[in-house]
Design goal:
five-stranded mixed sheet, 69% helix, alpha+beta, single chain, 7 strands, two-stranded antiparallel ribbon
């Protein structure tokens, strides 16, 4: 591995999850914004501080110094005029000047608190004021009014020199205050320039941080998710061979790997399903071939096998008629056995042929009135019903979509069994009932015959299974197996009611419309036929 990804730090970063990247990114952005905010707050505080000092201290201090100078000039003018004329009118400006001087000096001292140089200049001015007032102003003002003050004329030169010194002190003070004010203005301008630069930098850094955050989200989350979504959509669109490429943070890569693992498993399952489908198709082909062979067997049984069987039966019957009683008893018994075996074989082949044709030869579904089918069946069984003195009743039966031949075979086998397996000496009583059971119709054929023991409730539906010997009851053991096959072809089930006593009750269901032919055949072929 080469480049940045090969570095230990890069490998460490590659293990970061989306949550960790977001935490680090948000923390970094907040830290940068906090530093920028602190810098901006400091610049704003500095600007406010300098502005406050300029507005509240420097400019007012210069103004108070000028007012102090004005108050002293008023004093000097009043003292000089009073000394020259002795007129009390000149003392008013002097007295007002004294008051203004004290006010201005106090305010100036308060404004210059914390400014040692300014306080020194103020003390210099105050010392010069005290010297001038002590030597000139107060003595001249204390002379009686009405005449020029001799002291004023005497100390005129000294007063001029003393006030000039005072002027010099005040000029120096005002120059220093003006310099301080200009310095404050320069500082304010510099801080404002710095503030504007810092806020411009803050704006640029904010934009850069936002751009980095959006770019990080795009590269680290949005783009990987879009890539993952694109790959997933291709897979869901049917391109199961398209790999899912994991990108982005560790958790998104894990998600992509898990989705790709699911895709691979789906591919394996589809391959397995395809193999199963091919195997099922092969089995279906085998079943179709087997059905064709069964049809061929049915054809052979109905034609090729029956012809020699009829010859055997015919000739054994001829032997029985011609030589019956002429041979010994053993010969007559053997001939009787041969005739009976041939007849039973003929019956068995016919029944087996009928069983194999159920659902294949007779498979014409149409709207069918079961009442009419039952009536035709009872008509065909009328001889047996009359001989057994049987009574057959039924509820109103529904109209279903079914094969008429198969429904006739169903009723004939069920009612025929009820007549056949009757109790000796008891006329058969048979009742057919029908009721709706959800999406199906439930039918019951109830008789008062010999009944079926619970342990044989399943066995009676197995083909060729008999509960009695042929001497007791005739039959091939295919009847109930055929009923089961017919019912399953029509989407239902059939069973013996184990709770019924005093006879037998066969319950079965039929769908209003049978399932499709392949499904019905597969259901009937999946379970071996059963009979009694």
């Amino acid at each position: 591995m080469t480049g940045v990804e090969g570095l230990p730090g890069a490998r460490g970063l590659s293990a970061w999850t989306t949550r960790r990247w977001l935490r680090v990114g948000v923390a970094t952005a907040l830290t940068v914004l906090a530093l920028l905010g602190a810098t901006g707050a400091w610049v704003l505080g500095r600007t406010a501080s300098i502005s406050e000092e300029l507005v509240d201290v420097r400019s007012p201090a210069l103004t108070m110094a000028i007012r102090l100078e004005t108050a002293l000039l008023n004093q000097e003018t009043g003292v000089r005029g009073y000394g020259a004329t002795g007129s009390p009118d000149f003392l008013a400006p002097y007295q007002q000047g004294l008051s203004d001087e004290r006010t201005s000096a106090e305010q100036l001292a308060r404004l210059l608190a914390g400014n040692p140089a300014g306080l020194r200049d103020l003390r210099t001015v105050e010392e010069a004021v005290d010297k001038w007032q002590e030597r000139i102003a107060r003595p001249v003002a204390a002379t009686p009014p009405g005449a020029p003050s001799p002291l004023g004329a005497e100390r005129a030169e000294e007063g001029k020199a003393s006030f000039d010194a005072l002027r010099t002190a005040m000029a120096g003070q005002q120059a220093q205050l003006r310099a301080d004010r200009e310095k404050a203005r320069d500082d304010l301008a510099a801080v404002m320039v710095r503030r504007n630069g810092i806020f411009a930098a803050i704006a640029l850094v904010t934009v850069a941080v936002a751009a980095l955050v959006f770019e990080g989200l795009r590269r680290g989350i949005t783009t990987p998710l879009e890539q993952l979504g694109t790959d997933a959509r291709r897979v869901t669109g049917g391109d199961f061979a398209h790999p899912i490429t994991p990108t982005g943070p560790a958790d998104l890569r894990r998600l992509g790997a898990e989705i790709d693992s699911m895709r691979r498993r789906l591919v394996e399952e589809l391959a397995f399903a395809e193999e199963a489908r091919l195997a099922l198709d092969a089995q279906a082909a085998d079943l179709k071939r087997s059905n064709a062979e069964l049809e061929q067997f049915a054809y052979v049984a109905s034609h090729d096998l029956q012809e020699p069987l009829r010859k055997i039966s015919s000739f054994t019957q001829l032997l029985q008629r011609r030589y019956g009683g002429q041979l010994d008893a053993k010969a007559d018994q053997y001939i009787e056995y041969a005739v009976d075996g041939a007849n039973r074989m003929q019956t068995l082949i016919n029944d087996l042929l009928g069983f194999s044709r159920v659902g294949r030869v007779h498979h014409t579904h149409q709207s069918l009135d079961l009442d009419a089918v039952l009536t035709r069946t009872l008509s065909s069984l009328s001889v047996g019903i009359a001989e057994a003195d049987a009574v057959v009743t039924h509820d109103p039966l529904p109209t279903l979509v079914a094969d008429p031949t198969q429904m006739g075979m169903l009723w004939q086998n069920l009612i025929g069994n009820a007549i056949k397996f009757r109790r000796p000496g008891t006329p058969p009583e048979i009742h057919v009932s029908a009721e709706r059971d959800g999406a199906l119709w439930r039918f019951s054929v109830t008789d008062n015959g010999i009944g079926i023991a619970p342990e044989y409730a399943e066995k009676v539906f197995v083909i060729f299974q008999r509960l009695h010997t042929k001497d007791a009851y005739s039959g091939s053991g295919i009847g109930l197996a055929m009923c089961k096959k017919i019912v399953e072809i029509h989407g239902g089930t059939i069973s013996v009611d184990p709770d019924h006593r005093d006879g037998t009750r066969i319950n079965f269901t039929l769908a209003p419309e049978p399932p499709t032919a392949p499904e019905a055949l597969s259901r009937s072929e999946a379970t071996p036929g059963q009979s009694s």
